[in-house]
Amino acid sequence: MAAMKKYFWDSEETEYMLKVLRELDIAKHLDGRKVRNLKLFKVAEKRMKQAGYHRSIDQIRHRWKVLKTSYYSWNNNQQTVKLTRFPQYATTMQSIMDESETWSRSHGTNSGPVRIRNRHKFIVHDEETEDSEEEATAAQSLHDHSTVDVIIKTDPETPPEMDSNLRIGFIGAGNMAYGIAKGVLQSGDVPPTNVKVSAPSARNFGRFQELGVAVTHSNAELVSSCDLVFVAVKPHLVTTILSEITDHVTPKHIIVSVAAGVTLATLQGLLPFDTVVLRLMPNLPCLVQQGALLFSRGTRARQEDGDLLRSLLQHCGLVEEGPEAWIDIHTGLSGSGVAFVYLFAEALAEGAVKMGMPSALAHSIAAQTVLGAGQLLRDSGKHPAQLRSEVCTPGGTTIFGLHAMEQGGVRAATMTAVETATERARELGRKSAPTATENRK
Fold first, then answer.
1. Residue 118 scores a pLDDT above 50
2. Distance between CA atoms of 357 and 346, rounded to whole angstroms?
3. What gap in Å lies between CA 127 and CA 5, rounded to an integer?
4. In degrees to the nearest 10, what's the CA dihedral of 287, 289, 294, 295?
5. Residue 215 and residue 5: Cα distance in Å, rounded?
6. pLDDT tens digits, one per residue of 87-99
7. Which of 14, 131, 212, 322 could form a disulfide with 326 if both were Cys (CB 3.0 to 4.6 A apart)?
């Protein structure tokens, strides 16, 4: 899977980041290859977020370093530049560097970037080394022309760039598979022709075919033709499915299970010894790319495998990695939690109907209330209790309503719901554990 070990931002957000940095006069803040004013990246992060690009400050800084290193390699007659899409950004990067040199000269400094007179034809290299070594090597190749060595370390939040030849399969054609497939295709980095779905029934094939995805009834055929396979079936079917495909799984495969409760130990026990396995728990809002997804790596899965999965899922919503013990908790919190929120929204609307509001309007406002409250909670970074207190005024309507909810036991009932759903996920895991001797090749 070495060809997948690259860094990925899609072209649109990279171009927007460069546009923002140029508007912020990054050229005036360059000191050789370093940016003197790091607050610039904080402002850039806010502007990108306003435009719908949710990247952290560290990610933006990291991306700038990658582009800058590629620029110097390109401008230094390097015959290989590892950033595949750099030709799209070369003109803008050259303009920024030219502006920096002009500004440095006009202000009597020698810290601007060095102009390299000769150019070369840009060649993209398809082979990759280990992630962290890839960029360090590109930076170190500059040492003959500069006293500054740039070592760019991997940022765990920065997803890897995918090989356009990566082939992705989904065993199961339900809502989770469909939501993830939509998110994977949204970046445009993986073409629909590289995605395939298998299921025993053709009932759900139509919506996948509308995405341009191939369909099949053969799980073995799918695994044989794919590199990364999502097993998106009900927990009780996992043992049967994995037993069916195990002879077709090779060391090149990455298997990602989306089945609630099925542990990594169970998955690894049903597959060949050296199989790379990850366990993922998404939720229903993946259908609208607003999901909350948590994954955990098996014993054979490396950091770059997790980075690849994170990159694939980045358009599905929030993607986090954690220990496997958190997966079942996430199931209760977010997988099942979506239904808890729907119940609350339904009750909210019915309360308004009881007081005389038309049902359609009440449900529309309830949905927008939940959406707006959730977005404010996510984007503000404030604790829910703080936001709640900001709504309350002494003797006002909200504190009276909250008192009624506390009397009704809403808080305790919600905590118990998460606890019960978590325990049920664990129970499903115990039931799905294989009884046969582990399959080893």
1. no
2. 14
3. 9
4. 80
5. 28
6. 778 888 888 888 8
7. 322
User: What are the pLDDT digits (tens) for 304-341?
Assistant: 999 999 999 999 999 999 999 999 999 999 999 999 99
| Tokens matching residue 143 | 């040492």
Q: Cα 351 to the chain's mean position, in Å?
A: 37
Instruction: Identify the residue whose tokens are 């060595």.
Output: 149
HEC states along the chain?
CHHHCCCCCCHHHHHHHHHHHHHCCHHHHEECCEECCCHHHHHHHHHHHHCCCCCCHHHHHHHHHHHHHHHHHHHCCCCCECCCCHHHHHHHHHHHHHHHHHHHHHCCCCCCCCCCCCCCCCCECCCCCCHHHHHHHHHHCCHHHCCCCCCCCCCCCCCCCCCCCCCEEEECCCHHHHHHHHHHHHCCCCCHHHEEEECCCCCCHHHHHHCCCEEECCHHHHHHCCCEEEECCCHHHHHHHHHHHHHHCCCCCEEEECCCCCCHHHHHHHCCCCCEEEEEECCHHHHHCCEEEEEEECCCCCHHHHHHHHHHHHHHEEEEECCCHHHHHHHHHHHCHHHHHHHHHHHHHHHHHHCCCCHHHHHHHHHHHHHHHHHHHHHHCCCHHHHHHHHCCCCCHHHHHHHHHHHCCHHHHHHHHHHHHHHHHHHHHHHHCCCCCCCCC
Instruction: Name residue 63's amino acid.
Output: R
| pLDDT(440) > 60 | no
Higher pLDDT, residue 112 or 241: 241
The residue type found at 328 is D
Instruction: Count Cβ atoms below 10 Å from residue 78 Cβ, excluding itself.
Output: 18
Closest of 270, 271, 280 to residue 324, by C-alpha = 280
Most confident of 78-82, 149-153, 306-310, 425-429: 306-310
The backbone torsions φ and ψ at residue 28, rounded to the nearest 5 degrees and listed phi first, read -80, -10
User: Which structure tokens are listed for 376?
Assistant: 């404010």
Is the pTM value of this prediction over 0.85? Answer: no
